[in-house]
Amino acid sequence: MASPDVAAPADNSDEVSLLDWLRVVADQNVPEVFQSAAVPVAWLGRTSTDDAQDPTLSLPRQLESSRRALPDGFVIVAKFYDVESGRTAMENRGMGTAHEQFDIPIPRDGGIADLLAEAKRPDRRFVAVVCESIERIARVTYLSTKIEYELEQAGVALLAADEGIDRSAIPSLNDGAAPFRKATPTLTRRIKQAISEWYVLNMLELSWGGFKEHTIQGFNIGKPPYGYLAKQVRLEVKGKTREGKRVKHRLVADPLRGPVVTQIFLWRALDRLSYQAIADRLNLDPERYPPPEPIPGEGRRRIGAWTVNNVREVLDNPKHTGYMVWNRRKNPRKERNVKGRVNPPTAWVWSPKPTHEPLVTREMFAAASTIGRFRKGSRSEPGANRHPATARTYLLRSYLRCDLCSRRTYGSTKRSYTYYRCTPNAKNHAHLPWFAGHPSHVLVREDQLTEPLGQFFAQRVFGSSRKILLAASVTATAADPAVDIRKATLTAEIAELQQSQENLIKELASLKPSGDPDVDDAWRAGIQTRFAATIAEQRTKKQLLAGIVREEQMAAPVDIDLLDLLPEEQVDLARLPEDQQRRIYDAFHLDIRYNAITKEVAIRVTITGDTAPTLAATVEAIIDQHPETRKPGTGAAAPVPGKSVCDALRAPGRIRTCAPASGGLGVAVA
Fold this sequence. Notes:
By secondary structure, this protein is of the alpha/beta class. It has helices at about 20-30, 30-35, 55-70, 110-120, 140-155, 185-215, 240, 260-270, 275-285, 310-315, 360-370, 370-375, 425-430, 445-460, 465-475, 480-510, 515-555, 580-585, 610-625; strands spanning about 40-45, 75-85, 130, 155-160, 230-235, 245-255, 325, 330, 340, 350, 400, 410-415, 415-420, 440-445, 590-595, 600-605, 650, 655, 665-670. α8 (about 260-270) packs across α11.
């Protein structure tokens, strides 16, 4: 008999142990009398990541359990194993290198990807694959059955040691007396696969509950957000102490960085600055506004300056409100093809009450979060655009919107007059519900807007009669049950349309060619038409719902005493430089809407209990720098009969004025 082509181990440092070498020699030197009875099988092992199990112990145990379960005549001729999660995506299985970090006493022929590749070759070394238990294949039922199916299609049986080894389950050994796939063993395996997946999901569910309770108790997870320091809290659980997990962390305000967070929110919520503009201001004084430190890790380095992403992270972090919040992000899992993303706010887990010192109020946080939608496509800094063809600036840029379509107007000049225009495009807007009733060109002159705007601030914001005028317009409105029913109906209809939209996408994805191109094209076109109609109907109903919400806000109680927090001055804002005017307009969240059909303009500003003190300080500082504004001017003049007037209405936590005018351009001021 020929000697085996296997080299003996040189010394104890060799990767192959003496015992394993002897087994390899024995497998390759089966006596001829028994060679016809030998059944070559491959062994497949898997252990979880290194922080969950010890691969140097788990894999040898799996191999030994599989070897003991094999009947006489079965020989393991190849060994495949991986150190990876059982939930790894199929295309990433067997691609890891975690096994290289351990001294595993088993020669490795490859991972599961190599096993599947060899199983499909005609010269494969085995007729079956054996594992300790079916959960070692995968912890996801779909992946486990997919691997089993691929092996079956290649004519290779998948055997599990804990299920018992049946020779007739191997297609190449089946004599036809019974099918190689039997009902009861298959049912048993499917139940075990389901239990394996249930175990993982159950552990994730319990872990979720633990993190939720952790959040409710006010403990922080991960690096403290900018503006806070981590205060260690020692655990009282002795078992955890022995494991080395001795502390949790609560957040305490950083005396140096905490005020920086508050300032960032004030710039965003009051001045409506962009992320870049805020970063530029912070970088002017790094000692006063120290830039954040990156989380240590590969590819991260300290920049030493504020960036747009740094500012966005501060403004997006709800922990600055004093509440502990968890599950804001889904971490990426490359091995499972899971991309990192920001979860919607509805999925966030909030503590029921504040757990640490707030740096901003929830109202301020909410106000700052809406600036992005308001500022979209508009610069935050005053002055001319950087474009070389820019010839002038527009005072009301970003404040004036068309009331018919809610789109922002754009400025233009003609014969030394400044105009603001709204010109919808049929190609982009014809499908929207407002398009049919919208004039092709909406045009309004700037001086027709600045005069009532100056009157509003002089009389309704800073004037001595502001509380009287506001109180006279406030009327109590009883709650209407029909409004709640209408809101619930619209919400349900929107949800139904969204489900219909998803069904259409699935229908289009599952489209199977009929063989007739005309029929297939007509089917696709029909689905696309229904999809477009569904989107248009969704937009219409969302606009109706938003209108109901706005009406409810206007009918909500108003705190008239908020006006006392503002300075009482006779001012003419038209005397201020343009950049200072815009600074005040930004602070008051000025919103102007012009209706070209009714020839009315609605002016709204927002005043809350959180912003009123800062508004007062901003206005007083600007007026002190420009005392000429205290002189009565055209903006401070009393109303003249027959001209536009301004009357006050209200909105929740803010002041809003609105009334029709008598002649000329109608004015509704808030």
